[in-house]
């Protein structure tokens, strides 16, 4: 099984488009061999998950491309970085780390990438269309693009997403190809469920845990209120597992029917999800009991959409938390700008609301007090934050988070 | 594992990134995400769902990769710092780990082989050698 390169691929590899493109193509070829692709295909866009500073290697790679005169060849969005460039001073970092971390974000802009700095590029004007071939990094963005939009990407990692952007090409393998997008394992929700936010998180956690490398099909899921609930499901499934595509029967675009989701074939396995499975998965997200004193609330992982803000802001105005507990909300800079233009954030300070753009509270040092409990409505944040920044976490839905901020302690199920 | 000799283990696998390595096996019962799971400065496993341990210089053995695509960067940085495994053996190929290993080799000329083969019968502490067979295949043996 060998990789066939087009004349265009050969000329990029041969250095006719400069050293940076040649290096990107060289890595892309090595990667394509590693995954067993036979050829490369054209992509319409890319999303780069390389702006988060994980150490010198991140920067060495991008600098090598900048030195080689590189420019991306397709519209390319950027995932979060280590800094909030809109709110200077919010992220506190030793200078030794700050200088290379800032340089990493800027170096990507020098390659012609768009300054989106969001993990939810599907909320921007660069959102792809159904059936479009793209090369995206960031696990939640990948699962959203494939499942909710029906665009086509594999799970690209740091570096390779940029190599695709620099060449406008991706290996023709995996989820780029129709035959590999068929559902494989059926998850049946047994019982009747309300479309509560936590349900979608819980289903995502369970599906992620049990899918392995098979494509899950979920039946019995209630119609979601909006795509944010599917965002939460996908993000959770890509946290506890390696899910890059799920089908939800009657909900997602490649699964109008059960038969379409499985392309007329039988499921390899059928697994049932009951209420207790979901409760158990959600319970594991919290390491503290109800009533524990609260240090902060963190929302918006993945980045809070405009719709989510429009649910949060009226709740804040109604509950009016006044105990000084910070409510961090991670969001894309485009969403933030829109809210500012609309005047929606004018009373933010009253509730200790702290919008965070360009980054996320669990990947860098934003949260002031790490010794206490942080409450979140994000399954992904709840899973990763204890390991990343050393906090204790309480999971709850959006209303619980707001009420807890007002009470100063973890309150759940308050209605 | 061979029926005749419980200790013998000689397998043929496929390279996701070719190279030679040897070290003590660290077998994980479920997949580890390098991002959020490994501290690149030390090689310590920080994902609380694992029992702990350190991956540096080990032959890391697990069924598959998992989770965030940022794992590529964490693996490349660990390779640069010398805190990465000496080699990784997976039951199923993982593109995210492959990229981290390929880029580290491109930037720093350090090779960390990534092999796909049957992992059954390998236990933590086994001395494992990854070698290159004719035809570009990987050999995995216990010594």
Structure description:
By secondary structure, chain A is of the alpha/beta class. Chain A has three domains: 7-178, Aconitase, domain 3, CATH 3.30.499; 182-283, no CATH class; 294-407, Aconitase, domain 3, CATH 3.30.499.10. Chain A has 14 helices and 14 strands. Chain A has helices at residues 7-13, 19-35, 56-67, 95-110, 139-149, 160-167, 197-211, 227-240, 258-261, 275-283, 306-319, 333-342, 379-389, 398-407, and strands spanning 40-42, 45-48, 76-78, 134-136, 169-171, 185-189, 216-219, 247-248, 269-273, 294-304, 327-331, 353-357, 373-376, 392-395. In chain A, the strands form four sheets. A five-stranded parallel beta sheet of chain A has the order 12-11-10-13-14, sandwiched between helices. A four-stranded parallel beta sheet of chain A has the order 8-7-6-9. A three-stranded parallel beta sheet of chain A has the order 3-2-4, covered by helices on one side. In chain A, β13 (373-376), α13 and β14 (392-395) form a beta-alpha-beta unit. Chain A is globular, with a radius of gyration of 21 Å. In chain A, 56% of the residues are buried. The mean pLDDT of chain A is 94. With 143 residues, chain B is of the alpha/beta class. Chain B has helices spanning 71-81, 95-108; strands spanning 10-17, 21-27, 59-62, 87-90, 114-116, 127-132, 138-142. In chain B, α1 links the parallel β3 (59-62) and β4. The A-B interface holds A 23, 26-27, 30-31, 34-36, 49-50, 52, 54-58, 60-61, 64, 137-139, 142, 154-161, 212-213, 238-239, 241-242, 384, 386-388 and B 16-17, 31, 35-37, 40, 46-48, 64-74, 76-77, 79-81, 92-93, 95-96, 98-100, 102-104, 106-108, 114.
